[in-house]
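U., I forgot to send this yesterday:
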Amino acid sequence: MKAVLPIDGNRISPVLDAARTFVLVAASSDGALTRKEVVIADEDPVTKAKRIAQLGANVLICGAVSWPLEAVLLSTGMRVIPNTCGPLNEVAAAYFAGGLTEQAFLLPGCPGRQHRHRHRHGRRWKNGWRQT
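Result:
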């Protein structure tokens, strides 16, 4: 199993879209974690997402992520776990141990790891204004 995490120093980058350095973490059958650092400097969300997907990971663990970048990542079949923060080693170890829980490593100000709804349920919008 492999995961890719954007980093800023030795911590998870707070915003995926601005991240340029990524760490590909792989877990072996004996539980050992191996890491490989990769630089992806693409500004375009589509190109960046494709380069991330080419790393061969099936999951991306990140902080905040824009809707266009997340949509392209999801279209490649990658699972995205957003709203995550903390030291790289601790986040990676928690993920592979099954301990990346609802509150642990949650980005401050985020309501949780629930699926984000991108559409407006039960509301009609016209010219950017909500009509009740």
